[in-house]
Specification:
The chain is mostly beta strands. It has one domain (2-242): Jelly Rolls, CATH 2.60.120.10. The chain has no helices and 22 strands. It has strands at 2-5, 11-14, 18-22, 40-48, 53-59, 63-70, 73-77, 82-85, 90-94, 99-104, 111-118, 128-132, 144-149, 159-161, 165-172, 177-180, 186-194, 196-201, 210-212, 217-220, 224-229, 234-242. A seven-stranded mixed β-sheet has the order 1-20-17-22-15-13-14, with no helix packed on it. The two termini are 15 Å apart.
Amino acid sequence: MIRFIDHAKMGRGRHGWLDSHFHFSFADYCNPDNVNFGILRVMNDDLVQSGTGFDTHPHENMEIISYVVDGELTHRDSMGNQRVLTRGQVQYMSAGTGVTHSEYNRGAGLLRFFQIWIFPDKKGYEPNYGDLRFKLEDRYDRWLALASSVGNQSSQAPIRIHADINAYAAIISPGRSLEFEVSPERQAYLALIEGNAALRGCAGSGVAPLSLSMRDAAEIGESFDVTASGDAPAHLLIIEMARC
């Protein structure tokens, strides 16, 4: 099973300082048929103008990952953390029993980042924050493991959260392909961050690949391969999880 998601039909939030594409129901975009995908509750593709951002606000009982595409993301929270992240870097936060934070663009250019919310495996964890300064080249033509469950002993991902997911990123060179295995009891959500790609499920041999353009996505229930099409690399993000 592969379900194509056209970015042109996603929810949208335009506020002058902020332009967001909502993969799932969020804020003023309310679609009862598109609330979540498994334990993936929020994936927002946010464009934030220079000198603006999200003022201090609360979260609780949610695992939150932020993936910076371009620009500078300045984070400050009630746990005393203050950090600046740039392209390809990732921050994570277990909101647990409650935390407040702000996210700003203090840089000179446009900030683009993905904010990803995942339901935890239980409520009431102690709040926690961390970030990883991944090198951009570490994901060239390979799946870079970003995050996994605290209890997953087989994963090489350095980020550990309280949820049964595996998060990966890749930048595929034009004309090259990567395979991704999805076991029968699992499923995956793929977001095409930049470039163009052809997506083909391994279960449907002979079926024409599905064409994806920047900001498109797919819900996937089988192993697949993805090829960078066009003249530019394809930059992808995948959240893999148990079916539910």
